[in-house]
Design a protein that fits this description.
seven-stranded mixed sheet; mainly beta
Length: 120
C-alpha cells in the first residue's frame, strides 16, 4: 500500500535551518508530483511547496519563497524540504503528499506529519 513517512522535524531557534525528508513506498514515486503542506495550531492547512515528477519544476507558497527548497531523489523514492531562515510562524505540523498538482491541489495520499517548532 502507499506509504509516506516524514522525518526531520524538531525544535529550532528562529533563523535556523531544518531538513525534512519524506520516504515513500508502495507506488511508482518517479511518475508522481509531490508536495509539502503544513498545519499550524488553529489554522487551515497551508500549501508549502510542490515538485514535478521529473524534478525540473517547482512551486512555492508565498510565505516560504526564497527560504525553503523542495527537492526529490527518484532513485531513493524520497522527497526533501530544506528550510532556512526559519521564523516562529513556520511552526506547524508538516505533511508530505503524493499525486497532486504543482498548484497544491488534488493530493490523495498523505503522511502522518512531523512537528516543526521554531522558537523566538
Amino acid at each position: 500500500q502507499v506509504k509516506l513517512v516524514e522525518s526531520g522535524g524538531g525544535l529550532v531557534q528562529a533563523g535556523g535551518s531544518l531538513r525534512l525528508s519524506c520516504a515513500t513506498s508502495g507506488f511508482t514515486f518517479s511518475v508522481y508530483n509531490m508536495g509539502w503542506f503544513r498545519r499550524a495550531p488553529g489554522k487551515e492547512r497551508e500549501f508549502v511547496a510542490a515538485i514535478k515528477w521529473s524534478g525540473d519544476s517547482t512551486n512555492y507558497g508565498d510565505s516560504v519563497k526564497g527560504r525553503f527548497t523542495i527537492s526529490r531523489d527518484n532513485v531513493k523514492s524520497t522527497m526533501y524540504l530544506q528550510m532556512n531562515s526559519l521564523k516562529p510562524e513556520d511552526t506547524a505540523v508538516y505533511y508530505c503528499a503524493a499525486g497532486g498538482s504543482l498548484a497544491g491541489v488534488d493530493y490523495d495520499d498523505w503522511g502522518q506529519g512531523t512537528q516543526v517548532t521554531v522558537s523566538s
